[in-house]
From TrEMBL:
<dbReference type="Pfam" id="PF19280">
    <property type="entry name" value="CERK_C"/>
</dbReference>
<dbReference type="GO" id="GO:0001729">
    <property type="term" value="F:ceramide kinase activity"/>
</dbReference>
<dbReference type="InterPro" id="IPR045363">
    <property type="entry name" value="CERK_C"/>
</dbReference>
<dbReference type="InterPro" id="IPR057465">
    <property type="entry name" value="CERK_PH"/>
</dbReference>
<dbReference type="InterPro" id="IPR050187">
    <property type="entry name" value="Lipid_Phosphate_FormReg"/>
</dbReference>
<dbReference type="InterPro" id="IPR001206">
    <property type="entry name" value="Diacylglycerol_kinase_cat_dom"/>
</dbReference>
<dbReference type="Pfam" id="PF25382">
    <property type="entry name" value="PH_CERK"/>
</dbReference>
<dbReference type="GO" id="GO:0006672">
    <property type="term" value="P:ceramide metabolic process"/>
</dbReference>
<dbReference type="InterPro" id="IPR017438">
    <property type="entry name" value="ATP-NAD_kinase_N"/>
</dbReference>
<protein>
    <recommendedName>
        <fullName>DAGKc domain-containing protein</fullName>
    </recommendedName>
</protein>
<dbReference type="Pfam" id="PF00781">
    <property type="entry name" value="DAGK_cat"/>
</dbReference>
<dbReference type="GO" id="GO:0016020">
    <property type="term" value="C:membrane"/>
</dbReference>
<dbReference type="InterPro" id="IPR016064">
    <property type="entry name" value="NAD/diacylglycerol_kinase_sf"/>
</dbReference>
<feature type="domain" description="DAGKc">
    <location>
        <begin position="142"/>
        <end position="293"/>
    </location>
</feature>
């Protein structure tokens, strides 16, 4: 079947019956791709025999979580705290019922699991609806049936276990997903288990409950396992890495949760659980980081040297503060106002990938990422020559930098709702390299402020941004950290916070912050590995997309009211 035939097939009515919704009669229709219902108005006369249009509430089959017999209504009502409104007469007339649980958008990109119960006059009809709806759900091959879940009990505000048990597990149970749950006992427990022990054939996906650091563990476990299974040497910076077959789900329970926010538009555990249930799939680029041809780490969100590296290093001693450690260390690092000397060289991305300043936001169904996916295998890009550092296509920038940030994705998070690079793409094979040169403290503050407002992040003379496929950083070890002189030091007063003299106890190098982990080396080589992994997500839905689906799915449907049911 092609084109319009497929569309017609999707609209083919599988079931159509009159039932009762609460205490009012309702017409209910099931097609291949939607369940629709409409309460029957008293004034509405089907016998009139005219074709008309009416307002139907519609739920796409792909957004149905489960359908089941409403076994114990009293219990349902206690759970949902709804009053029992069914009259005895209604109960006698419609004694059988089934409940459809489905995804409902509740604004701000949040999803909720909502229920609608249909009452039937006879048992066979009720069972038939459950059976046929379940048959349609079974056709959705991308839905996971079995998941391996890792919980970091110490991430963020240490709520991981509670969040999983109270908010996520009930959603998975309702959807009939089986889970094996591991609560981690130490750092790198999840990574090591995935790398060497886990029987991955049993699962359709891996879920992490925690922050970006916990996600990074899962990423390293899965990617390393996949490479060793395929005998790919990760130490080779130019090795062609094999994409992971299992998708990763993120239940946000960390401090920044930027990967979850940038791929769903929110950090809400129930929303993430529902993206997993419906089997969403979002490809993601991964940066591989090497030092002297030896593998260091992978990175999905931000690689930050200077400001974000120093802030992370300082914050590690304050983990007991939870997410607030970043605020405290952020202020301290800002006041220190260090900058670092070195050379950044990079290979620009192809021009058709746009620019970090083009305001083309990466949203659900992004065409730039889809196009990249289509041409990825053709390897149309570049000759070996272009790839070599030092060839004409590479550019080098030497200088003193307050921050060098590579945003592989927008890095949007609650602290910075548009992110470090608002137009960065999730899966275009490039990363946005942001260079913040030496500037005054006030100027740097203005730059940081732009992470939180709507102004162009890069519209400052001391900031430049490049969309790149690869980059390298070489620190200049002869440099000393020069701290800005703001005020003269008063005799007998506290020691100066800043001095124009080199201060030997400061390290001339910063550290790299790689998805919230500190890298052991400063001279690094970075390559973007296009679409190496997939998440259970769909990218951020456009406001209009969201709005259309928010307004309680109400579809204008031409419907032949003569249908015999
Ligand atoms: C004057 C107002 C200044 C406000 C500045 C806000 C800047 C926010 C930038 C956010 C970038 C986020 C990049 C993501 C980094 C994470 O991978 C990493 C680890 O996350 P997690 O494991 O969940 O803790 N987080 C960080 O490195 C902290 C970012 C800094 C947050 C202030
Ligand atoms: N059981 C554990 N004990 C201690 N550290 C752990 C444990 N499980 C995971 N970790 C580590 O905790 C770090 C932070 O985890 P994460 O979930 O990202 O929280 P946060 O966002 O607060 O940093 C990660 O580096 C991860 O490797
Ligand atoms: Ca990217």
């Amino acid at each position: 079947m092609i084109g319009s035939d497929v569309r017609m097939e999707n609209y083919r009515v599988l079931l159509a019956d009159r039932m009762s919704l609460r205490i009012r009669p309702a017409d209910v229709v099931l097609t291949r791709n939607a369940i629709m219902w409409m309460e029957v108005e008293k004034s509405w006369k089907p016998s009139a025999g005219v074709s008309g249009t009416a307002c139907w509430r519609t739920v796409q089959v792909c957004e149905i979580v489960a359908v089941r017999r409403t076994e114990d209504e009293a219990q349902e009502n206690t759970q949902t705290q709804k009053p029992n409104w069914r009259s005895k007469q209604h109960l006698l007339q419609y004694p059988y019922s089934f409940t459809v649980s489905y995804v409902k958008r509740s604004g701000q990109h949040q999803w909720r699991c909502s229920d609608v119960t249909f009452y039937c006059a006879d048992c066979e009809l009720c069972d038939l609806w459950i059976q046929v709806t379940n048959e349609q759900l079974a056709l959705l091959a991308n839905r996971p049936k079995s998941l391996l879940v890792y919980i970091n009990p110490y991430g963020g505000k240490r709520q991981g276990k509670y969040i999983y048990e109270q908010k996520v597990a009930p959603v998975f149970r309702r959807a009939g997903i089986s889970t094996d749950v591991i609560v981690t006992e130490r750092a790198n427990h999840a990574r090591d288990h995935l790398k060497t022990e886990a029987n991955l054939d049993k699962y359709d996906g891996v879920v992490c409950v925690g922050g970006d650091g916990m996600f990074s563990e899962i990423l390293h476990g899965l990617v390393s396992r996949t490479q060793s299974d395929h005998k790919v040497d990760q130490d080779q910076p130019d090795a062609e890495l094999v994409p992971c077959s299992l998708r990763i789900g993120i239940i946000p329970a960390g401090s920044t949760d930027c990967i979850c926010f940038a791929t769903t538009g929110t950090i809400d555990p129930v929303t993430s659980a529902l993206h997993i249930v419906v089997g969403d799939s979002q490809p993601m680029d991964v940066c591989s980081v090497h030092h002297n041809n030896g593998f260091l780490r992978y990175c999905v969100s931000m690689l930050g040297y200077g400001f974000y590296g120093d802030m992370l290093t300082d914050s590690e001693t304050k983990r007991w503060l939870g997410p607030a450690r970043y605020d405290l260390s952020g202020i301290k690092t800002f006041l220190n106002h260090n900058y670092y000397e070195g050379t950044v060289s990079f290979l620009p991305a192809e021009e058709n990938l746009g620019s970090p300043r083009d305001k083309l936001l990466c949203r659900s169904g992004c065409l730039v990422c889809q196009h990249k996916s289509a041409i990825k295998d053709k390897h149309s890009e570049t000759s070996e020559e272009r790839e070599k550092p030092g060839s004409d296509s590479w550019r080098a920038i030497c200088g003193k930098f307050i921050a060098i940030n590579a945003a592989n994705i927008s890095c949007a998070c609650p602290r910075s709702p548009k992110g470090l690079s608002p137009s960065a793409h999730l899966a275009d094979g490039s990363t946005d390299l942001i260079l913040v040169r030496e500037c005054s403290r006030l100027d740097f503050f203005k730059h940081l402020l732009r992470h939180t407002n709507k102004e162009d992040q890069f519209d400052h003379s001391f900031v430049e941004v490049h969309r790149v496929r690869k980059f390298r950083f070489q620190p200049n070890h002869d440099s000393m950290v020069i701290l800005e002189q703001d005020e003269p030091h008063k005799e007998g007063g506290p020691p100066p916070l800043y001095s124009s003299q080199p201060i030997p106890q400061f390290n001339a190098d910063s550290n790299w912050n790689c998805d919230g982990e500190i890298l052991p080396h400063t001279a690094i080589q970075v390559s973007v590995q296009c679409q190496l992994i997939r998440l259970f997500a769909r990218g951020i839905e456009e406001q209009q997309q969201q709005q259309a689906l928010l307004e309680e799915p109400c579809t204008l449907l031409a419907f032949n009211q003569n249908t015999d049911y």
